[in-house]
Amino acid sequence: MRDCVLRCLSVFLNQDLETLIKEYVDCEHEEAESRIAQTTMGIYVIQGEGANP
Asked: By the number of CB atoms within 10 A of the CB, which of 1, 19, 23, 32 ranks highest?
């Protein structure tokens, strides 16, 4: 269901899904914050390596 909602949001906002959603796996907190600060709007998933989704 979450996948469907995110795809609909992507269509509604007229944004490419890969541009709208970013996933950071096992990266430094500061690095992720820096990338997020450069973005106007997005959906972010930050997980440690080996973490369950």
From this structure: 32
For the chain, what are the domain ranges? 18-53
Sign of CA dihedral 43, 23, 13, 3: negative
Model confidence, pTM: 0.51
pLDDT for 51 equals: 65
**49 CB-near residues (< 8 Å, 6+ apart):** 25, 26
CA distances to 24, 32, 35, 53 from 44, in Å: 8, 9, 10, 13
- On the CB side of 37, CA atoms within 13 Å amount to 6
pLDDT in tens, 13-48: 888 887 777 777 777 778 778 888 877 777 777 767
